[in-house]
Amino acid sequence: MIQNSNLKRSWTTRRDEKNERMQKADPHLEGKYVATDHITEVLETLIQPKDRVVLEGNNQKQASFLSTALASVNSDIVKELHMIMSSISRPEHLDIFEKGIANRIDFAFAGPQSLRVAQMIDDGQMEMGNIHTYLELYGRLFIDLIPSIALVAADKADEAGNLYTGANTEETPTIIEATAFRQGIVIVQVNEQVEELPRVDIPASWVDVIVVAKDPYQLEALFTRNPRHISEIQILMAMITIRGVYEKHQVQSLNHGIGFNTAAIELLLPTYGESLGLRGKICQHWAVNPHPTLIPAIESGWIDSIHCFGGERGMEEYISARSDVFFLGRDGTLRSNRTLSQMAGQYAVDLFIGSTLQMDYEGNSSTVTKGRLAGFGGAPNMGHDPKGRRHSTPAWLDMMKPEETLVRGKKLVVQMMETHQQGNNPVFVERLDAIDVAKEANLDIPPVMIYGEDVTHLVTEEGVAYLYKTNSIAERKEAIAAVAGVTPAGQEQSLKQKERLRSQGIVAYPEDLGIRRSDAKRSLLAAQSVEDLVTWSDDLYDPPQQFRSYWS
């Protein structure tokens, strides 16, 4: 007879452990609420050494009160934590490593703290798990990085503990669900407690502890770009992109990365795009944050729908007044979702367009450079060809190679940048810094943001290279060099090689697209200042103070 060796095993150990921790914290709680000044004691009670702690902090929204409280705990009690963060953005995110509260990190992006991250790894103060894309990190929260503790932020909570996350829902639901449904503890900072919520974004049954923060959570206007700072070179590149990519391939759905390059495209749609008769033919469906520079295109009838990763400060009233375009709740506020918008950007859109700090001669690119461990964010999710895609669109089908037996399309992945960065440093390099950074940080693989095999188009101030048309790595190198300008990569190429690529349609310069360089003037922008954006919005856009310096 076979004996069942599991007869005496407990199958509720995680639940029992959670209950035990919560009982210890009970004296500090009134219902689910803890007094603001007692949050540090509660964290010391609920968090144990070596716990996995997921801390909300993406590009814009930061659980800033809880991160500050975590950095204040006694490191003799709370220590050796494994931190999981979308974005390492605030000083205290790294203070907890210097104090010994945490020793291991898995993250997606570290732009504001990238220099310090690199130094701390070099000094042995931080042990690296992996650098992830957003979707990769979110996915692992449900597989092998399941959190013991979640520290998140919301706008409001009612007495029962239901949460309202408002326009900046962002990654909150994903983080909470991964924790709550595996018997972890969910701790939420809120801006205020109210009797009745505008809507319920997170049910109380998913939440364990709530604290009303001393100050509202940090929220950055990360995707706002002042049109005054858009250069004529960026306008030229935007014209090349509209004519040589969007029009050529009938791009209907897309994601724009952050930056002045893409802001220029957005502001040229109602002017240059209109002159080409492209309204209703391109750029109708978007997965993108609510960039203020999209306002003229929305008002001109170019855009049908926008699903947002997060909100943007100052855009709240405008978004609420444009319910035909944005995803809104019954309360009239935006419902954003970083996870779902990343998924839409990966599988549903025709095109991703972004930029980079370095690109090698084969088209591989990275924002990780010497001494800076910046990470990726969502660019690799957006900037690759998802093999799971099956639905067809004109742009996707336009990438087919008809000689293949099982023909299929391809997502358009566009890298758009000037040939030189600040300090006149060439963007095009023979060897990515990321290769050496990987060795210095003991990473298993170099932190490449977008691989050359996925890049279909390269746009610079010189023109556009149709990399999807190349038939070999050698030819791809030639196409990249043809638009690399007066960098070492560009100067190695002969005029004869460039003319051959032009004749084959692998490279196009502005004159090949019917664009006169002299036409790339700021007068083409539909809005030339933040004040113009406010006017376009019928005074609904309320810019943050740092963008009012020119007209306050």
UniProtKB/TrEMBL annotation:
Signal peptide positions on this chain: none
Gene3D superfamilies: Glutaconate Coenzyme A-transferase
Stretches of the chain forming a coiled coil according to its record: none
Main enzyme class: transferase
Enzyme Commission code: 2.3.1.187
Keywords: Acyltransferase, Transferase
Compositional bias annotation for Polar residues: 1-10
Basic and acidic residues: bias regions: 13-25
GO molecular function, one term: acyltransferase activity
Keyword Acyltransferase (UniProt): yes
Region annotated Disordered, chain positions: 1-25
NCBIfam families: mdcA
The protein's name: Malonate decarboxylase alpha subunit
Species the sequence originates in: Virgibacillus natechei
Source taxonomy: Bacteria, Bacillati, Bacillota, Bacilli, Bacillales
